[in-house]
Amino acid sequence: MDKTPRPQPLARDAMAYVLAGGRGSRLKELTDRRAKPAVYFGGKTRIIDFALSNALNSGIRRIGVATQYKAHSMIRHLQRGWNFLRPERNESFDILPASQRVSETQWYDGTADAVFQNIDIIESYGPEYMVILAGDHIYKMDYELMLRQHVDSAADVTVGCLEVPRMEAVGFGVMHINAKDEIIAFVEKPADPPGMPDKPDRALASMGIYVFNTKFLMDELRRDAATPGSSRDFGKDIIPHIVKNGKAVAHRFSDSCVRANMEAEAYWRDVGTVDAYWQANIDLTHIVPELDLYDRSWPIWTYAEIKPPAKFVHDEENRRGSAVSSLVSGDCIISGSSLNRSLIFTGVRANSYSHLEDAVVLPDCIIGRHARLTKVIIDRGVEIPEGLVVGEDPELDGRRFRRTESGICLVTQSMIDRLGTVT
Fold first, then answer.
1. Per the annotation, does 108 bind a ligand?
2. 215 in a known ligand binding site
3. Residue 342: closest CA among 311, 318, 366, 377
4. Which of 51, 85, 88, 369 is most buried by a 10 A CB count?
5. Per-residue confidence at 171, pLDDT binned at 50, 70, 90?
6. Known binder of ligand: residue 338?
7. Would you state the CATH architecture of domain 10-285?
8. What CATH number matches the domain at 311-421, 3.40.50.1700, 3.40.50.300, 2.160.10.10, 1.10.1740.10?
9. What is the pLDDT of residue 101?
10. 366 closest CA partner among 388, 343, 382
């Protein structure tokens, strides 16, 4: 029997700090009332649930979430779905809105400032390590493995990095590394991204995930706050300074991504545009999707609403409640409506003779009779009028709705309300 002592999990000495204040303006009307991390995804969850679930599944039991832009929807979701961490078990879950704690005139100026303004709260818990996370990406990752690399390499900062084709990295912050994965330069959106030593046709793009020893991070944040002209940002200020003056190490996402048996590739998505958001949701309807939401070994935790099962009714010609290659959430009634390659969130009512194809329908929508919806995103609570057709006349769709160049139509209630004035 192997009696070699196993190393204690580093995650139990870590705090995850999720930066969730981003507006996500490229999602257009989807973020008019909610921050990007609070946008719905996958039928039951919100985008932020992925970073939070990764932290929980990795063994981290102290979590803070910094919010700023239109945060009510997200705060309500966090209070309902993430309130099970208990102080008496040395666990904590803090929601940290921009509340002008440092200055009566200062909100969070940047990602680093969103941590700096809450240093006293962090230090009161005494975590040995800080895992800084972006709250607006879809992926599954074991942060324990990243923490272990951070400690083993004696890094000042470890930066989570995604391998991408070299010329696709022009829109990212790119890590120029040596053969030991030490970062020798940080280049923001370079025209000619540096390749990896072992893969010259690939580049390492920052995922917005950083691991620090807590004391080192606090010292860096105080130094940065006292530096005139700093934008108080991790990617623009903190990380480049450490690259020049300390030891920064790249952590490859492929080394810690979590894959179920059916997942062939490391999955990471920035669903920050209307097209990308629609595509990532529709991808889940594939027979073998690239992201497995059914993986019980790495569950995506969320607010579990108490709702009745989905219901399909009517069995007549042209009036048959049916769904093919689709995901349908609880409390949906598909009443004589047909769905194909669609993802339907909780509480949707699809009425007789309507047809939805390649549709992402957010919670509590009502689809009127005889409506035909193709390649659409329907915002929460929208009532689609009887007989409305979307996705068949590009010119008309462009006048009435938010239509992307690839033909995806985003439909909100205010757009529906204006239909009588748009011809």
1. yes
2. no
3. 377
4. 51
5. confident
6. no
7. Alpha-Beta Complex (3.90)
8. 2.160.10.10
9. 54
10. 382
